[in-house]
């Protein structure tokens, strides 16, 4: 089951890493590997959400999503999108950006270095909004409860995430942007950082709005299908599950693509905190995208979701760390290896905490769900879950 589902992902990983080491050396091998881990970890919740929606589609549209969808995900978001970001920031055409990356790496590196304050401000604000929206939401399962509980209470204030992000942008513009690192030394990029940061904030709000629109329409479609099913049963007519799935399949496909694009933003933009090499970036993120698709299929076929409940938390803490690093790198240079390892360490810690939690729940006789996740649980269950949090390291 595992080999059949993840076989292509294993093959692409081996070929991709071998090609990186052969073409660019062991540094590229390490960066591509880190980017792959980063993409998988940041998109883990994407696979879970995809699985929940994909199981509602018929077999034909599932194949469309897993074939055409992977082409859009890998070549569209992981290859074309980084080129577009560099082209816009460096004020050159996309073809020229690719040509420079291939034929004149020195000139390309200067362009990317000069464009980095704009890229960092845009990406830093986008990633910061993802982190703030997550950390300010009151969630049933908490990893670092001592931190997440008070922040969840503050999150009840309307538009707090936007306000905090704008404060961070203003502070960055008044500190790091005044002596931004460029190819010729340092320069004042205050206006550029402010404009790019606002653009990143607007992009997040637009993407979030589109996702919310599709979610609302999807809920309306499901309610309509449920009413039709109840009416058919009351009249004694047969109900065709395939017809109902096919009726909303195209809409579901569009929803999944918008959702995947929104999840891809954090991986692509976060990759700029690790490297400016667009081919390393495309290769590492492409390998990660293959695993996300394979994980989606695995979850659909198994019919269960993963038990490692803190991975989503670790991924979002990694996003927050990448956002801070991007804003700092407007003035100061930070090693790509250090940047990548910070995310890996946070995700590994969340994985280990999930394992400890599962063992604690199993030892206490719990069923593996958070005590606050379902109504009607007694105080003893809540106490066991609280002990599990403590045992996990929270």
Descriptive labels:
394 residues; mainly alpha; disordered C terminus; membrane; transmembrane
Structure description:
The chain has 394 residues and is mainly alpha-helical. The chain has one domain (1-364). The chain is 79% helix and 2% strand. The protein has 15 helices and two strands. It has helices at residues 2-24, 26-42, 44-54, 59-90, 94-103, 105-135, 145-154, 160-174, 190-234, 241-247, 249-271, 278-302, 311-328, 336-364, 379-392, and strands at residues 180-182, 185-187. A two-stranded antiparallel sheet has the order 1-2. The longest helix is centred in the middle third of the chain and has 45 residues, at 190-234. It is globular and about 75 Å long. The model is unreliable at 241-247 and 368-394 (pLDDT under 50). The chain crosses the membrane at residues 30-53, 65-90, 115-136, 157-179, 191-214, 239-256, 268-292, 313-331, 337-355. Residues 375-394 have a biased composition (Basic and acidic residues). Keywords: Membrane, Transmembrane, Transmembrane helix. Residues 365-374 have a biased composition (Low complexity).
